[in-house]
Write a structure and sequence with these properties.
The chain has 202 residues and is an all-alpha fold. It is built from 7 helices and no strands. Helix 2 packs across helix 3 and helix 2 crosses helix 4. It is globular, with a radius of gyration of 18 Å.
Length: 202
């Protein structure tokens, strides 16, 4: 490799892969921190972090690249994230159709999360994330992925249109867990520098 290759402009595919790899690594790192031993549950829960980060990619790409550029970049990055994450969950000897089925399920879940996060008015709030924020919604999805609730009737709360009550409080992690998640996700989002990475595609 010549010395001038160091200064060559990176291809779009290289940038897509870089962003996707950061998202996968961040999600798998979060998985290791979970207080849960069931690998299927932790895999599902950490995937929720990937879905939220992908939504942040979606929003940043629209601002940086416009609608057409966003469509190309987001679709490619999302496909890489889902493929790489699904493969990371299994041994190399796992049949390809098993990995493909997990990837297909992840794609469906990601599309559902896109709708949920698009309805949220902000990423988080101070001093803690409240209903209507993406972090609050992510906390719910992680809580559900870990098998700690089976409620699916809280969409209006996630959008910030209704309050949490004694009747539905079991659907959400407690305030301490939500605050820890907010700090963790905020740190990840800051470290990823998504807008700066996406600007290199212009």
């Amino acid at each position: 490799m010549g010395i001038f290759s160091m200064f060559r402009k990176r291809s779009s595919e290289d940038i897509y892969q870089e962003i996707a790899s950061k998202i996968v690594v961040s999600s798998l790192s979060y998985r290791m921190q979970l207080d849960e031993t069931d690998p299927q549950l932790t895999g599902n829960a950490a995937a929720e972090v990937a879905y939220l980060l992908l939504h942040l990619v979606d929003r940043a790409a629209f601002q940086v690249l416009g609608e057409a550029g966003r469509n190309v970049a987001f679709d490619r990055i999302a496909k890489i994230v889902i493929s790489d994450y699904a493969h990371a969950l299994f041994k190399l000897s796992t049949p390809p159709d098993v990995v493909a089925d997990v990837g297909a399920k992840m794609l469906d879940d990601m599309n559902d999360r896109q709708l949920s996060y698009a309805a949220c008015h902000t990423f988080t709030e101070s001093p803690w994330p409240s209903r209507g924020t993406m972090v609050f919604a992510c906390g719910y999805f992680i809580h559900r992925a870990l098998g700690r609730t089976n409620r699916t009737d809280v969409d209006a709360i996630l959008r910030g249109e209704e309050n949490v009550t004694e009747y539905n409080i079991d659907a959400f992690p407690d305030l301490e867990q939500t605050l820890k998640l907010s700090i963790h996700l905020s740190n990840i989002a800051a470290t990823l520098r998504l807008a700066d990475c996406l600007k290199r595609l212009r």
